[in-house]
Amino acid sequence: MAGDYAYRKLGWRKVSVIAFDYGWGHEVAGGFQRVFEELGGQVIQKIWAPVNTADFGPYVASLKPEADGVLDVVTGAASIRLIGELRKAGVLDKKKVLAAGTATDETLLTALGDSALGVLGFLSWSQVLDTPENKRFVQRIKQMTKKDYVGFSAAINYGAAMWIAEAIRQVGGDVENKDKFFQTLRATEIKSSPRGPIKIDKYGHIVQNIYIRRVDKVGNLYQNTVIDTYPSVGQFWKYNPEEYLKQPIYSRDNPPCKYC
Amino acid sequence: MEFWVNQTFNGISYAALLFLLGGGLTLIFGVMKIVNIAHGSFYLVGGYLGVALFAATGNFYLALVGSALAVAAGGVVLERVFLRAVEGDDLRQMLLTMGIALFVQDACLLVWGGDPFSLRGPAYFAQSVKLGGFTFPILRLFMIAAAGVLFVVLWWFEEKTRAGAMVRAAIDNAEMTEALGINVPILKMAVFGLGAFLAGVAGVVGSAFMGIYPGLDFEILPYAFVVVIVGGMGSLSGAFVAALVLGLLDNFGKALFPEISYFTLFAPMAIVLAFRPTGLFGRA
User: Fold this and answer.
1) CA–CA distance from B177 to each of A222, B165, B170, B186 (Å)?
2) Any domain includes A77
């Protein structure tokens, strides 16, 4: 859906991708490229950066100027370095950056500071997601941690715990009957978790909303403002699951970079 | 043209950080003959203290000096209290520094928590200067200046002063130096403190450049070792040249052949080890 958003809503036609060189980076970049290029876009550059790259300078300096935007699939503390470098090198003044959501995780926002302002991301949650359930959740976590920011992991794992608790309730606490419990778990839908409605597809993977977020500064605090929502996104996007699963897994060279 | 200028500049600034990292380690190794596994911890503590001091005072240079001095003081205490107790036993000394490193790692996690920090520094660190059509980020310029100044000062100290001559003598033959009436234990303590000071400086500069977070201590340790091994253990000039070579190699390696970026830093180390086991400037 990130490819869909980049092509339809951002109007990108040519994209540079910079991603961590391991399974997660390959998967996110691969899924993006497939959808983006099927719509008619072109990925013109793919840079695989080692996990925990210390200096993104050489990569950022070699980004192609003709790209409309940059897909950033880097997370954790390295994200601070990459986004800081993108800002210092002036890339963020010229074009937009769309990031795999945890690149601007709430726990990184202080360290990212002004450098991340305007960076877009896609993720299944935001601290400022405007639902009563999320507001209640955020407030309670803040009371416990006494911190301004609540991280993504706290929210999704809280949702997962709600799910298990609901399934236990439905089987009346009879978790010893494993088959029945797991069947119930698979059939359980949570309508109001902090991140919105969640359920599992028949392959055991989650179906959830994906939010497009933008880093803004409100008062003294940074936040991931939700600017768009893709409801009920599953792992196969709009593809047929059987056919999708027959594809080889995404890697450095799959899908191949036709327009590099 | 722009590519070469930009990438060379990036490489040199990365080299500056590598020198700050490796310089302290090589000093400590030269005089004390121990592999200081806690070097990364000095870096980590330096970085965290730098962030805290900058938040408290708002003055980056105060934070830099204050933090580095605090780390140096910590280093002196560690040397005096712990390392001195197992003097002469290299393996136990190294294991001790390993223990210290693990302890410091956990202590930092306890004090500063698990979220990454970044030292913002003065506002101009985020800006760039334009010179002849090229853009140079000021933070990177500062890194180069800091490493350059420290190298010149240390080189002058080691080569031109009496105390520096004593250090060199202790590196070459500690026993003979002691027989000449030079107080080697005090020398060792001072050098350990100096090495820790450099690591503290690297920590503050590094946390402005690449952030600071739990686990970074063991992440940067290999980089420090690469500089020391390529440059030759105990050689300051060696560390300087090695940092420069490695910084440029790593940078151009990443820019020109992104697929092999895992090797750009460590392959030169393996090659140097194979052909010159003592490093570029090291003496057997």
Assistant:
1) 59, 10, 6, 12
2) yes
The answer to whether residues A117 and A238 belong to one domain is: yes
Closest of B159, B177, B269 to residue B224, by C-alpha: B269
Name the helix (H) or strand (E) containing A112.
helix A109-112
- Note whether residue A257 is domain-resident: no
Tokens of A126: 């935001």
Mean residue pLDDT of chain B comes to 90
- Give the count of domains, chain A: 2
Domain termination residue (choose one: A185, A200, A215): A200
Shortest distance, CA B6 to any CA of chain A (angstroms) = 7
State the pLDDT at residue B267. Answer: 86
Question: Residue A106's domain spans which residues?
Answer: 2-127+206-246
**Does residue A112 sit in the same domain as residue A9?**
yes
| Distance (Å) from the alpha carbon of B219 to chain A's nearest alpha carbon | 9
Counting Cα atoms < 13 Å in the Cβ hemisphere of A81 gives 26
d(CA A11, CA A20): 25
Of the ranges A223-227, B92-96, B221-225, the best mean pLDDT one: A223-227
**Which H or E run contains B159?**
helix B138-160
Q: Is the domain of A96 the same as that of A138?
A: no
Chain B residues with CB under 8 Å of A108 CB are 115-116
Predicted ipTM beyond 0.90: no
CA distance A144 to B270: 50
**Is A256 within a domain?**
no
Candidates B254, B256, B262, B266, partner chain A, best to mutate (most A CBs within 10 A)? B254
- CB nearest A58 (choices: B223, B251, B259): B251
Residue-level pLDDT at B201: 95
Across the interface, whether the CB atoms of B7 and A112 are under 8 A apart is answered no
In chain B, where the domains are located: 2-275
Q: Which two tokens stand for residue A6?
A: 């980049």
Helix (H, G, I), strand (E, B) or coil at A95: coil
Are residues A77 and B213, on separate chains, in Cβ contact within 8 Å?
yes
Contact A46, A29 (CB under 8 A): yes
Question: Are A118 and B248 a contacting pair, CB within 8 Å?
Answer: no
pLDDT band, very low/low/confident/very high, at A83 (cuts 50, 70, 90): very high
Q: Nearest CA of chain B to the CA of A21: how many Å?
A: 9
Beta bridge partner(s), residue B46: none
Is there a contact between B242 and B230 (Cβ–Cβ < 8 Å)?
yes
